[in-house]
């Protein structure tokens, strides 16, 4: 399911912004980081649930949704094309925004009253 959602979301992003800069992968990884941070806090700190839910949602769904291998390939493709500045922004943006999104997900998970 996660891979299917990733495909639909990435296709929509490319149709809106074009395929030149791999923003679709960056946005998927950032939203995936947010969701992973939020779900891991909810499933391990806030709720009493079977550990299988963590495997299903985080490892299964979000593992299929996020695209780290695509991200690394696209970053190297930008470098090979001599697009050093976009490659740098892509790497810094993906990692920096991914870390901030995971932090936001953790904060949201810890701040939600259940």
Walk me through the structure.
This protein has about 110 residues and is mostly helical. It has one domain. Helices cover about 85% and strands about 0% of the residues. The protein is built from five helices and no strands. The radius of gyration is 15 Å and the shape is elongated. The mean pLDDT is about 90.
List key phrases describing it.
114 residues; mainly alpha; 0% strand
Which structural category do the helix and sheet elements fall into?
Answer: mainly alpha
Q: Please, how many domains? A: 1
Compressed to H and E, one letter per element, the order equals HHHHH
Low-confidence stretches: none
* Strand elements, count: 0
Q: Tell me roughly what share of residues is in helical segments.
A: over 70%
Quick one: biggest sheet?
none
The fraction of residues assigned to DSSP E strands is under 5%
Shape designation:
elongated
Compact summary:
The protein has 114 residues and is mainly α. It has 5 helices and no strands.
Describe the secondary structure blueprint for this structure.
Elements: H1 2-17, H2 23-46, H3 51-65, H4 68-80, H5 84-111
Helix pairs in contact: 1-2, 1-3, 2-3, 2-5, 4-5
């Amino acid at each position: 399911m996660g891979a299917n959602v990733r495909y639909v979301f990435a296709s929509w992003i490319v149709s809106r912004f074009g395929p030149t800069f791999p923003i679709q992968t960056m946005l998927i990884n950032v939203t995936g980081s947010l969701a992973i941070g939020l779900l891991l806090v909810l499933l391990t700190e806030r709720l009493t649930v079977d550990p299988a839910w963590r495997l299903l949602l985080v490892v299964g769904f979000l593992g299929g949704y996020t695209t780290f291998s695509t991200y690394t390939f696209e970053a190297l493709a930008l470098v090979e094309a001599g697009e050093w500045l976009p490659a740098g922004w892509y790497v810094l943006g993906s990692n920096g925004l991914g870390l901030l999104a995971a932090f936001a997900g953790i904060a949201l998970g810890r701040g939600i009253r259940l």
